[in-house]
Amino acid sequence: MKQPPNQLFSSNNFPRIRMRRNRMSNFSRRLISENNVSLDDLIYPIFITYGSNIKEEVESMPGIYRYSLDLLHKEIEYISSLLIPAIAFFPKVQNALKTSDGKEALNKNNLICKAIKISKKVNPKLGVICDVALDPYTDHGHDGIIINNQIDNDETLSILCKQALVQAEAGCDIIAPSDMMDGRVGFIRDALDKNGFTNVQIMSYAAKYASAFYGPFRDAVGSNLSLLKKSKKSYQMDPANSDEALKEIALDISEGADMVIVKPGMPYLDIIYKVKQEFKMPTYAYQVSGEYSMIKNAIEKGWFDEDRIIFESLIAFKRAGCNGIITYFAPNIAKKLLNKDDKN
Ligand code: PBG
Prior knowledge:
Blueprint: H1 5-8, H2 26-32, E1 42-49, E2 55-57, E3 65-68, H3 69-81, E4 86-92, H4 111-122, E5 127-132, E6 146-147, E7 150-151, H5 153-170, E8 174-177, H6 184-194, E9 201-208, H7 215-220, H8 224-227, H9 243-254, E10 259-263, H10 269-279, E11 283-287, H11 289-300, H12 306-320, E12 324-327, H13 330-339
Parallel strand pairs: 1-3, 1-4, 1-12, 4-5, 5-8, 8-9, 9-10, 10-11, 11-12
Antiparallel strand pairs: 2-3, 6-7
Helix pairs in contact: 3-4, 5-6, 9-10, 10-12
The chain binds ligand PBG.
The site of ligand PBG has 11 residues, from helix 7.
């Protein structure tokens, strides 16, 4: 008969059972390790901007830069050399191009489309992921369009479909709807299929929370000012909720999502665990800008050991059940993974 755990570990079993025995030597720690972070787990977000010869650091994200397109090929070559499987582009659109309807999102020659083409030219095998949401392009900073003082779900859907098509035509491999409008995954899947993009994947930001951890990102893409005093709570989820996340994920899967994202990452490990257990889908965490900044700032102050903290923050996602992680630390960890095979 199976012993209940409390009996198995009762003091009677000591000293026969010593948990430390397996941990004594490096080889043994390697043998008993249950999870690992590999190059195959990494997705790297890249910020792009207008102009030329620009590599400017994002103030709130030390070590993360916005690149103008003429410098992008070098960055793509670098990321490729680290064997990172995929990148995700985020544009910083100049204010003059922002409108209330975000129509620059539909311009076939916009910053994102040009970046996709550059990336595909430099390395066709590097996976390219693009957000579908209007916030980089709207003057109010919201992900959808505003009608009668509300983010209008249904009117936004048709624009998002066009945005997805424009990006697919430019060569994007994975469309990542991050807008949290209801029904968007199904609409986008149909639009892609009708236009011959049956193999373009959808990685949906299925459970995306209205989070303060996005602060530095909004600085990076310049949607901060316009959003000041406004919130995305009418479409992004309440951090208090968990059952609702499972419903969101179930809906996106039923509408055709190939992969699902939980965002932010570290404060939502419980959600990741439940999602993986329940749906067994390819599941990803977005270790968002605020998580990056917290860790990076503490590293720079000397409060955290760089190698250990980054690895620990990423292995937590693997333990929770993630297939991969969207992380600003991707090049950093990739370099380490390439340089050594032993995590001690
Ligand atoms: C846009 C979007 C956001 C992030 C990714 N896509 C911000 C937001 O919803 O306001 C955040 C990423 C990060 O913080 O690193 N819809």
